[in-house]
Sequence to fold (366 residues):
Amino acid sequence: MQQTIDWDLIRKNYQLPNQKVYFNSSSFGALSNRTVKVQLECLASWQLNGNTILGEAHDAAKYLRKEFLNLLNAQDHQSAVLSDVSTGMNLLAEVFGRDKRIALLEKDFPAVNMPFIGRGFNIQWVKRANYYHDLSRLEDVLEQGVDVLVMSWVMYNTGQKMDIHAIGELCKKYGTVFALDATQGLGAHSLDLSQVNVDVLLCSCFKWFLAGYGTCMMVCKNSFVRDFPIQAAGQYTIISAEADLLDPDNHRQGIERLELGHIKILPVLALKESFSELVDIGFTSVQERTHQLMKQLHLSLEQSNIEVLTPVQRSNNIVMIEGTPERVKKLEQANIGCTYRNGLIRFGIYFYNNEDDILALIRALN
Fold:
């Protein structure tokens, strides 16, 4: 028999949703008491003892590489711990080489598009109609001959959840490498990489993995590394400082080569803690709770005659409405955390929100 989860008790572990009505996890996920404690203990250890917890951080990184693969059911993949998606995308751009034709989605997140724009890649744009990216337009671009498709899973500025199963099949059909930024989807949504054709996945962990800034998980197929050998190298490329620097057997291979320098001890320890807490709650429970709250939010907005601008297929964790100056002022006065950008208001809902938050939001909007 499945144990009932006390969501009110879990909520007490996160200060942000207890300080204000917090619908801004799509910008920054709330930090738990335990995650903050781990970081403070790390700082105190550095202050009093110097760097004596390096081994603990390496163990944490090893745990994260393994557990992210487990979360994604990634059976023929490898993983690495990076600092952020922008860094990962720039490293990917170097791996691809500038002779590759890249497909990008119009108005996608800058961390996805700018590494390829900045390098002057041959870019084929998938146009957006109003707030909606249509699958047929994407296929038209792939059909013209594209080497790599790079895109987000959930659109940060609309909340549209892209059908990555269908897109992965299109990439397979047209021989296109599929690189995915899963930052706004993973954690709040489940993903099985044994069933979805994604070659490379990146995910910053300061949103739905609640770790604060400084970590990004990267996962790729083993076949991707065979097709695109990774030549990036740094201090961490060397397996043993005692062995010969020029010995290829002393060099890390595959995606871990992208972990270039000193391990980022504090962010890695924070992510291990926040990820472990989510495992303790259960990702399935987290996703079901988030979906349930989103359904209630949609219903409440509909009953209040407030139009939802997020196109279908909609994500379970992000919803957009029109951002009039009057609405923005009302939300500020009610101490409701959200994002206002380009005439739209974005609400990011997560498991530590509750029904009272939704009622407070609707009262403020009305």
User: Anything to note?
Assistant: The first strand starts at residue 21 and ends at 22. The chain has 13 helices and twelve strands. The mean pLDDT is 96.
